[in-house]
Each structure stands twice: as structure tokens, then as C-alpha cells.
Amino acid sequence: MTGGPSATARRESAGPALPKLFPNLRPRPRWRELWLLLLVGITLVVGSISLEATRQAQAAAAAGEPAAGLPDLALFHPQPLVLYLVGLLAAHLAQVLSGRRMDQILLPAVGLLGGISLLLMQRLPQGLAGGFGGLGQTQLIWLLLAIGIVTAIAVTVRSDSWLRLYKYTWAAAGISLLLTTFVLGRDVNGQRLTLDVGPVSGQPSELLKVILVVFLAGYLSENRALLVEQSTRLGPIRLPPLPYLAPMVAMWAIALGIVVISRDLGAALLFFVVFLTLLYVATARHSYVVLGLGLFLAGGALMYSLFGHVQTRVDIWLDPFADPQGAGYQVIQALYAFGRGGLIGTGLGGGLPTIGGNMPIPAIHTDFPLAALGEELGLIGILAILGLYLVVIERGLRIAAAAADDFRAILAAGLALVVGVQAFIIAAGNLKLIPLTGITLPFVSYGGSSLVANAVVVGLLLALSDKGVEPPPPPKPPGRRLGRLLDRGAR
Amino acid sequence: MDPVALSLWILRLAFLTLLYLFLFAVVRVLVRDLRAAAREPGSELGRLVVAASPEGEPPLGGVFALDAVTTLGRDVNNTIVVDDAFASSEHAALTFRGRTWYVEDLGSTNGTYVNGSPVDGVAPVAFGDELQIGQVRLRLERARR
Questions:
Q1: What is the rounded average pLDDT for all residues in chain B?
Q2: ipTM, interface predicted TM-score of the complex
Q3: Do residue A36 and residue B23 have CB atoms under 8 angstroms apart?
Q4: How many Cα atoms are found within 13 Å in the side-chain-facing hemisphere of A211?
């Protein structure tokens, strides 16, 4: 061979100079996801056509013309919907190219929820939120950003050690975020939830829920054996080991702090319920749940007797008709909207016209999207949408069951449950099943913080569902100091 | 019924039908997935993965599905034979009681270690923990479902 040594030299010099962008690109087809995404596309296109036809009929009726012939089959503001569907397809292709064996159902299920959100935001009065030319346009931008985040996390995250190893760092970051909001946050509608960082404003509680789940997964997986087996006996009652109750009490105190300082009942409820559920998932002990519920009831009663804003919420829930034009107005209008919707709804765009340029329900795009959907899609439509949340939960629990170790199992279960519990809390609040708390309906409500945080959740779930790559968990520090102290004390 | 109202009605129903068609397609996939998982041998309670084995028995990277009681040692009558110069013939036992795995040292000469700390009598083992018997290290993992 002529150029033996020089070829070797060239290879050596070319090695570091040209970093390979795609080291081993092995595409893996995801036909199931593509097929489901196709169904999503068809569904959303038909929804958009239905919206446009209703609009045409309304316009004709408003002009006083007799309904002439069939409506044109056109899309209602086609550009955002097309962009959204292209975004979903791009996410699909990126996952195919990454070659990972990830879940194929989460993206279509969440994509359908996002698409319904887009249709709803296009249909609501555009003046409800400013910036980027109206409600629909702004929501489209956030949705596309969310798809980008899901894809980026799903394709790039191949190890969970950055979550696993730094759980106390994450907890510290979460608590400092919470304290920053307490101190520097801006009050909106009497709730201190919004944090302004330069030109960007956001609701940290949405991101906090992800951090909470990461921390709990780390803490519970490390102490699972001790939490399960040890117990303190109080006569006939077997209680969990007392030192390990400290986190539960701390969590309870944090939830109460959120209620008192930022007046955010929704986030407090969400955090505490997710904490209890994960504790049960990790230990399978009923006593924790009973104890937690007891603490919750005691805390709720305490808050109710001490704070006016909690009393208002509960009083509205018990009897909204006591003050139908004031405090109870929002909840009553939501109930009327569900009533108008009936079994199959009025059709997209067919809901009650605006009153004086506003929708009859205040904050319909953030807190009451379920009421808007209930009016236009009816009971049947609402059940389908709640079914989509069940699908997300099922996937999360399935990923948890297939996980290799406790940390990943608890993390996957927690991520799915945080979405499911949040959807349940706000849906039940809309339906007057529990007192209304102002949190968002995941993937559907208008708002960037919510979409971004839930995109992180879905991205992590997809990354965790990968069955191909299986990096061994990093070695743990020998022994658990607290556990050894306990053992010594017991002897 | 006038044609406009009728067509609106059809479009509305089509949208709702498609929503359910999507849900049906998803649920069919989910059910198939769950059936497939149930068909796999499911009695497995956990698995041991060999993380280090200088003398080649058990083989490095080997995976053992665990029953409720598993004994480890150099003797051939053990469930998992650990052929290592520093392992005793009846070295340790792994047992699943209720909800947790425990490792018991059966009076071995060189001791049993969990994540590097010696086992004194019986110790709980969590998934992801590493057992050390002689020079052989074994990682306990959850069963795949």
C-alpha cells in the first residue's frame, strides 16, 4: 500500500478536527406513532372544518340572509393548525432518526390535547391575552416550543444520573425558587404566583412540580427499604418510623406555606397529593396514606378557620348561588356552560356568543377550558378528553413497571401522576366537585409556563421509556448514615 | 331539516367520532401491550446482574431471575454458584419477604457486603444495590414487566 503511514496520520488528525454530529445514526421506524399521529391530524382537521362551518352559519344568520346551500369545507385559520401538525410530524421524525426504542403513544395522545387546545384558543376571543397577535397565535408559539422541548429531551437525555445524583441540589433549587416567588413575586388576582425575570414572566409552581417529583423519586428510592420495614409501635397501631416522618411533616408545612403566603391552593393541593401518592407507590403502606389524609384534613380545617381566601373558596363551592353576580359568578357560568353543552355539545364555535366582547366565564382560557370544551363538545367530548389523561397516566405507570430500578420507577410514576392529579384537580374544580383552585389543565390551558413544564414531563417520560440504552446506576455512597444511626439506636 | 344545520350536525358528530376512534386505537394498542407483558413469565421477583466476576463463574454480565429464596456460595448445591477464591461454600442467602429483599450472611469467612458496607446478620437490599461476595459483585434489579 502506498500511503500507509500518511493515511494513519491523516485519520488521527481528522479525528478530533471533525466532531461527528451523528455518530451512529440508525433510524428506527415508529409506525404505530405515525398511524396515531395521522389520526390526530384527521381529527384536528375535521374539528377545524366544523369550527369554520359553524362560523359561516353564524355570520349568515347575523347578516340576516337565509341559509343558502351547504357551507364551504374550509379550515378555520388554517395556518396555525398546519404549522402545529408539521411540528408534531417533525418531532416524530426526530425520534425516528434518534433510533431509540421509546414509547409511541404519549406523543400522539398529548399532541391531540395540544391540538384541541389550539382549536379552542383560536375560537375564543383573541383579545383575552396580548402579545404575538392574539390568543391563538401566542398559544401556537408556546405549543411549538413545547414540542421542541419534548423532542430535545426525548432524543438527548440518555442518562438519569444528573437527576439522581443531585437530588438535594434540585430540592434546594426548588425551595429557593419558591422563596424567590414569595419575596419578589407579583400579585395577580390576590395570588402571588407570577415571577418576572427581565421581560419574561412565568409561574414557577409549574416547574416546581417537576422538581418535586425528581427530589421525591431520589429520596424515596434511597430510603425505600427503611420506610417499608421499620415501624414504631404505639399500642396496637403500627406507625411508620418516626424519623422518616420528618419529610412528610416538612412537605405538609411547605404546602401550608404556599397556601398562606402565595395563596395558591391549587399548587399546595397538587404537591401534597403527589407526595402522598408517591409515598404509597414506593412503600405500599396504607398507614402513610391514612396519616397523610389526617394531616391534610387538619391542615385544611386550620386554614379554613384562619384565612379569608380559603373560606371564600369553600363557601363558593358549597353554595355558589349565595352571591350569583359576585363571588359565585364564575362557577355558576361554568355550570351553565356544561348544562348548555348537554350530551354532545353545541359544536366547536357554537357556544354562547360573547357578552360585551368577553366570554361569559372569566379566565376561561386558563382556569376553565374544560367548561368551554364541555359546552362545545358535550359530555361525550369531555369524557374523551379525560380519557386522554388516563392514557397518559397508564403510559407513565407502564414505563414505571418496566423500569430497571426504584429511582426510575418512582420518577416515571410520579411524572405521570403529577399530570393526572393536576388534570383531576382542575377538572373537578370546574365541575364543582371540589372547591375551585386556580391551576391549569395540562396541555390544554393557555399559558407558557404550564405548557413548558408539562413538555418537560413528557420529554422525561419518553426518555425513561427507552428500553435500548441501559446505563447501570452509579455506585451509591456506602451505607445510609441515617439508617445506620437508626439501627444503632434500635440495638 | 335544512341542509346547513344537517351538515353542521354531521361535522360535529364526525369530530366526536374521530376523538373516540383515536381513543379506541390507543386502547387497542395498550391492551395488546398489557397482554404481551402478562404472557411473559411473571413469577420473577427480581434479578441479579453480575457486575464484576474476576474468575468467570458466574459469568460477567450474566442475569439471574430470582425466586423468593436464593442461596449463593461456592458449593454446587447453591442456586447461584459463586466460584471465587474468597467465597465460602455456603456464603449468603437472598430472601424476599413481604415487600423487600434481604441478604443474610451464612457465617462466611470473608463476609458479605452491600454497597461496600459489611452485612451483620441480615440486611435489607434495595433495587439497584450491589452485593459483594468474595470478589464477585452482583447488582439487584427489578424484574422486567
A1: 86
A2: 0.84
A3: no
A4: 17
